[in-house]
Amino acid sequence: MSVNKLLQRVVQPDFTPKMPLDTRRGSLDKQIASELHDYTYGITSDPLTQFAVVFSALIHDVDHWGVSNEQLMKEGVPIAEKYKNKSIAEQNSVDLAWDLLMDTEEYGELQRCIFSNEGEYKRFRQVAVNVVMATDIQDKELGELRKKRWAKAFEETPQEAGPDQDNRDRMAMIVIEHIMQASDVAHTMQHVSIFGSQQVRTAHKLSFVIVIQSLADPTLFTFILL
After folding, report:
1. 2-11, 54-63, 90-99, 109-118: which has the minimum mean pLDDT?
2. Shared domain check, 194 and 184
3. Do 199 and 179 reside in the same domain of the chain?
């Protein structure tokens, strides 16, 4: 819900036209659509990208283990080794959800609705993967890469940033990633009673994990008692 609401704010902004509006039949709609396209870096006229963002929001926590990537690394779970300790939960969610979507018998009709050719398939997957990976805000290396892309897209001159279409795509992806990151923590903006109940559940989960680990390492349980 959060990502869809924020996406609508980008897709349907209040804006001031760059040029006087042409009020002839058909011309007004085309001019508004054209300026919205520019204003939103093409997001407003790309339903495939819009759906990919919503799809990513639905799948980004598939099979979540209830603990952080750092904790998964410490526990040495199989998926940590599989993904080489990089964005473990995020990569696992993408793989599981994508395998499910690629089940032609179950979701063949949905596939045909989302992408009709190889180009659309690749673009949909690229956006979905990038958006889910954006939810890993703890990885410092990924964070530095995002900062560099932001600087290239919004701070460098057009000549330094590269071709207009390439930089527009870069800007669109950055906006989409920020929408996803904001939506991922939107629960912190809910009523304090709801937020508090979520944190209590999280504390219970982590306490349970520590107790289970203490069975293998008694020193952890001693630490809890202290």
Report:
1. 2-11
2. no
3. no
pLDDT mean over 141-166: 77
Please compute the mean of the pLDDT values over residues 3-13 and round it to a whole number: 66
In total, the chain counts a number of residues equal to 226
Write the DSSP assignment of the chain as a string of letters. -HHHHHHHHHHS-----SS----STTHHHHHHHHHHHHHTTTGGG-HHHHHHHHHHHHHTTTT--SS-HHHHHHHT-HHHHHTTTSSHHHHHHHHHHHHHHT-HHHHHHHHHHH-SSHHHHHHHHHHHHHHHHTT--S-HHHHHHHHHHHIIIIIS-HHHH-SHHHHHHHHHHHHHHHHHHHHHTGGGGS-HHHHHHHHHHHHHHHHHHHHHHHHH-HHHHHHHH-
- Domain shared by 143 and 63, yes or no: yes
Is the Cα dihedral 209, 215, 220, 226 positive or negative? Answer: positive
CB under 8 Å to 182, separation ≥6 — which residues? 2, 6
- Domain identity same for 157 and 49: yes
Give the range of the structural domain holding residue 213, as residue numbers without chain letter. 190-226
More confident: 109 or 200: 109
Give the residue-averaged pLDDT of 62-69: 88
Q: What is the mean pLDDT of residues 122-148?
A: 92
Across the range 127-156, mean pLDDT stands at 89
